[in-house]
Amino acid sequence: MTPFLEGALDWVYQSDPPKVCQDCGFDWSIDAGDALTVIESSPDRYEAALAGKNGMKSQADGSWNATAYLWHLTDLARSWTERWVQIGQMPGSRLVGWDPDELAEVRDYRSLPTSAGLWALRSAVETFAEVTATVAFDTPFEHGDWGNGDVADGLRWLGHEFHHHETDVVARAE
Ligand SMILES: [Zn+2]
User: Fold this and answer.
1) Beta pairing class for 140-143 and 147-150
2) How far is the CA of 174 from the centre of ligand 1 (A)?
3) Is residue 143 a contact partner of residue 79, using CB atoms and an 8 Å limit?
4) Any idea where the domains of the chain sit in the sequence?
5) Backbone angles phi, psi at 118, to 5 degrees
6) CATH topology for 3-172?
7) pLDDT, tens only, 35-52
8) What residues sit around ligand 1, an ion, with C-beta below 5 angstroms?
9) CA 163 / ligand 1 centre spacing (Å)
10) Global pTM?
11) Which of 23, 111, 127, 156 has the most C-beta neighbours closer than 10 Å?
């Protein structure tokens, strides 16, 4: 495991990161190619999870609605696609970080519509998969907060995001 993924796990779980996420069942030792499959196949699952449902129902605790997670995952896929292009040209270079909560506020994820979100997610994931095929899994990068990583651990990190947020969407859609 690269320092990047170790740092990511410490950030998610605070201490004693589990081998398998207790909330969503994601196995952190997953093969990187399988993690990519989790991401690539996710637009169908999100579409199914939201079919006939209201994804924009506001949450009593003020947290994101179901559709907001689509926009979060779309921005994640887009950003990491750009990062793969960057490190394809400049292996080992430093990735520019961004705060997902600030982005959610300025883009107003909670007000963005579900149908466009499903379209955006599918389009972003397709481009992500296309560009992922152009970089070797051992291509390195430097993450500002978590340290050195590679494409394989980036895919594991993103695979968990795409897997974990399914449970959030299912819980929030009505
Ligand atoms: Zn999880």
Assistant:
1) antiparallel
2) 22
3) no
4) 3-172
5) -65, -40
6) Four Helix Bundle (Hemerythrin (Met), subunit A) (1.20.120)
7) 999 999 999 999 999 999
8) 21, 23-24, 26, 164
9) 7
10) 0.96
11) 156
